[in-house]
Here is the input.
Amino acid sequence: MIRIGVIGQSGVIPQEVQELSEEVGREIASRGAILLTGGTTGVMEAVSRGAKSAHGLVVGILPGDDRKIANTYIDIPITTGLSFDYRSLILVHSSDAIIMIGGGNGTLGELSAAYLNRKPVVIIEPSGGWAGRIKTAAYEGMYLDHRKNAKLHFAHAAKEALDIALARIHEAENS
Here is the structure.
């Protein structure tokens, strides 16, 4: 099964970001993919809620050793024994593609890890945070630096983000 990782900020998120995140989760589940998140609050909880509402499978890659920190929508909590920063690397490496919703500094680090590992990344621009600003900061509007290791892809809605992510995964499988 295809594994889609979703990255975004934890904690309290605006209502419109919650709704978008839930829609992304539903879209992932409806396409038969597995959702991977950091497993806690904010975007991770909202996207997990959306996936569960569509009967999807949700995996949470958790920091530390306590499964109890997982949000209630996680089917498979994976404790890493690692800090938030390092558990993000496991999330990135375990995903076939990454979708970025909003995000602060931690999400920016996850984006960088995905880019360095040439994972397909789709950024939902209207979600705010770094997702709303990265295109203007990016080299030529689509790369994280002049080496052009991997192209960043941009979407404005959940369905579009999944269309792009799945197309990039299939391209990688067929090359």
